[in-house]
Write a structure and sequence with these properties.
globular; mainly alpha; single chain; 7% strand; two-stranded parallel ribbon; 171 residues
Amino acid sequence: ELFKYFYNIYQAYGDNTVVKLVRQQSNFVFIHKILVEIGIKPKYIFLKRNPAEIVYSFYRGGFNHSFMNWYYKDLCKYREAIYVDNCYFRKAKTPIDYIMSSILSDYKSFDESYKWISKSENQSLIIHYEDFVANPEHVMKIIANDFLKHTETADMDLALTKLFDLSKLNS
């Protein structure tokens, strides 16, 4: 099913397809193998944020209230099931501990995925969320020029518009 899903996306949008994998670190290698099987040479951009800032985002969103979308117990049960051998959850006692355990578990897997992809011939880049928020234009230039090897023009907005052309959307 994932093969068909990714295949259809790449057939519709072509080589400039961007697929956002949210919290898919635990099956990153599996997804990578599917992309390679389709014939895609993926380039990966890992977006990493300070774990304490993520916890604060959950806190601001009301993570401790069962009627909220990001209710911590449901999220943490899911993470605990994925990361069975992880020691973080065994030490957790409070809702904040559980959220931090979930994030640290994700980042442990995130780091393993990044190390795995870095050892291969595939291109990868880590972008720090805080850098992106502080200076998005600079980060986009790094992505466009250094990572995607797009030559910079005098008008960066025009260059980024051409590089990330959304006019090919078909539905």
